[in-house]
Amino acid sequence: MNILFVCTGNTCRSPIAEGVLRDMATRKGLPYVALSAGLRAFPGMPVSPESVDAARLLEPPVDISNHKARLLKPEYMEAADLVITMTDDLKIRVQQEFPAMMDKVYTLNEMAKEPGEVADPYGASLAIYEACAKQIQALIEKGLAFLESMNRLER
Predict the structure, then answer these.
(1) What are the residues whose beta carbons fall under 8 Å from the beta carbon of 25, sequence distance 6 or more?
(2) Model confidence at 155, in pLDDT bands (50, 70, 90)?
(3) Catalytic site residue 120?
(4) Where do the domains of the chain lie, and which CATH numbers do they carry?
(5) Residue 96 in this model has a pLDDT that exceeds 90
(6) Is 113 left (phi over 0), alpha (psi -120 to 50) or beta?
(7) Is the pTM of this model over 0.85?
(8) Residues 10, 120: Cα–Cα separation, whole Å
(9) What is the Cα–Cα distance from 80 to 14, expressed in whole angstroms?
(10) Which of 40, 53, 120, 152 is the catalytic position?
(11) Which of the residues 12, 13, 22, 23 is marked catalytic?
């Protein structure tokens, strides 16, 4: 199952989510392929240093240091079985840009069946980035049941 994480610039939240799910899939033998992109990304930009540090502080540590920003493209949307955004606003914007694919777009909090959103830590302290990374990791862990149910539907 291909899962696409979407945020704004693809230098903070969605690279962390991509790295966390990729790591979980590898460690647990799960059938998920993770990718990330940004609605307003500048292709090729490196991931923020704070995101790299925050991902390394996770347990287990996740290495996203080689990530380069990707702009959300139709081919990414078409290849994805699920598209996971960080906020309700991003979900609406993705659905507006890709109306034919709106039924496969969810927020990370919806996937985890949790209220709220994943706020953008851009420009904040490392402590804020670390809290964001831990939130993303916890939501992905909680969302594994949702992913499995969607994976069964795809089969």
Answers:
(1) 31, 32, 33, 34
(2) low
(3) yes
(4) 2-154 (3.40.50.2300)
(5) yes
(6) left
(7) yes
(8) 11
(9) 15
(10) 120
(11) 13
